[in-house]
Every structure is written in C-alpha cells, then in structure tokens.
Amino acid sequence: MDPPQESAAGGRKRRRRGGARNRRKASSSSQQAPPPAAAAPPPPPSPPAKRRRKDGTGQAAATPKRRRNTSSMLDGLRARLSGGHFRMLNETLYTCSGQDAFDYFKKNPTFFDVYHTGYQEQMSHWPEQPVNIIINWLKSHNASWTVADFGCGNAAVAKNVDNKVFSIDLVSDDPSVIACDMAHTPLETSSVDVAIFCLSLMGTNYPSYLEEANRVLKPSGWLVIAEVRSRLDPNNGGADPEKFSKAIIQLGFSLVSKDAKNKMFVLFYFRKKEKSKAAKSIDWPQLKPCLYKRR
Description:
The protein is of the alpha/beta class. Helix content is 40%, strand content 16%. It has 8 helices and 7 strands, in the order αααααβαβββαβαββ. The chain has helices at residues 8-32, 65-95, 98-107, 109-123, 130-139, 156-160, 206-216, 241-252; strands spanning 146-150, 164-169, 177-179, 192-198, 217-228, 253-259, 265-272. A 7-stranded mixed beta sheet has the order 3-2-1-4-5-7-6. Helix 2 packs across helix 4 (109-123) and helix 3 (98-107) crosses helix 4. It starts with 7 loop residues before the first helix and ends in a 23-residue tail after the last strand. Keywords: Chromatin regulator, Methyltransferase, Nucleus, Repressor, rRNA processing, S-adenosyl-L-methionine, Transcription, Transcription regulation, Transferase. One of its GO terms (molecular function) is methyltransferase activity. Its EC number is 2.1.1.-. One of its GO terms (cellular component) is nucleolus.
C-alpha cells in the first residue's frame, strides 16, 4: 500500500511556519550582531628607550640628563653674570675717589659682598696670597704692636694674629670692622705701630690714604704695602716703582726692604722716621687701574 499522502494545504502550512521561524531567526540575528567595524590602525611604535646611566649601586640615575644639562647651563649663566658684576664694581673702586666709593657702597651694601665674592674667586688663582706673607711677618715680630689694616676685606689679619688690629674698610657687617673712607679714619694720631695696605690702594686719591696712615702711625712705625705687580710696571702702562717709593719717602718714611720676587705682586716695607716731616709738594705717580678682562 502506498504511504498516505499529505495534503497540499498541510504541507504548505508547515513550510510557511518553518519559513516564518527561519525568517524570525534571521531577523533577530541581524538586529543583535552589529556589522563588523573597520580594523583600528596599529598603535605607533614606541620610541626606543634611552639608556640611562647607572650609579654605583646599579640603579638608574635619578636626575635626567636633560635636567642636569639645564642646571649646568644656569650655573654657568649665573657665574657669568656674577663675574660681570664683579668687574663693574672692581672698575668703580679703581676709578673713583675713596669718598665716592664709600657713599656708593653705603647706599648699596650688598654690592660689597658681591665684590668680595668675586675678589676671593680671582685670588684663588694666585699661587701665593700676599696677606699670608704679611700675617707671617707680623707673627715673627712683636705681638704687642697695634695694627691698622686699611682695606681689610674679610679681616684675615685680625683673625690670624695676636696683635690688636683695627680693621678698616668701606662697608662692615662685622662689628669689629670700622666702616669709613680710608682717607678719614677715627683712629687717633700716633696710635698704631703698623699700617697695612694689602692690595687696597684702589681709589684715584690713594695718596690721601697714605697720608692718613702717616698721621696714625707712631714714630718708627711700619708701613707695609702689597700691590699688584702690573700697577707698578712702566713697561705695561704702570707706574715706576722707584717714583712710587720716592713719593712715600718724601712723605716721611725710609724704605727698609722691597720684595719683588713674586710674579703677581710686590711688597714694600717702609718705616716712619723718628722726626718725619712731609715735603710740601710730592709728585705722586698715577697707579694703573687693575681691570679684569672679559672672559
């Protein structure tokens, strides 16, 4: 017997139901699954890592190289600015009178610190310091002598000898230093045994400083002068050292000794005459300003 035949209507109905289910599934799938997105571009390659210098423990150095370079550059600029300021102040001291310099630094006392910082930096390049020679000279003589240190700077003489020392300079932030124009000090006449000028005959009126030293020195007192060699080199525009000595002798001194063996400075040791009388007219040589070149 032949198998029973499905009616055409029933078959069409089942096919329609199955087709509807398939269409619903397809429609649902099309709503849930978004279309595939375009592929994202690959990330840019990372820059190669810089090699970092390690310290002694094997750890990477904490300060980046660029920061270290910037810091060094700033330090260099500060040094150049400080050096330029020092040269300006140094030129001022050599080309104005002592009273003008005193008034200038009295109005701007911090400039004096700038000057002395630059001065110490310049002196650090000298193989020998004249102030140390003078200190040793004082130590080898009488500790009871009273000393006047004209242009004392950081008062190195007073700090290193047992003598009583009057430290004198244009500006003072130390109560032991007398701030004044060195041509007019508050010291009494004939009150000191030694007067020192260690690289401090800087004003255009430097003879008035020496006249003041002559006033405060006792008879037979010592006048010790250290001066930059180039200022006393006539072959280089400086004063004739013989004329310089002669002028001081005419002020009432005798030259005891002169030390010119150092290539940076010259030392003079004068002694005041027992009965000194300054000449009415003294031909003082002009001392060449000691100006530093720009670097």
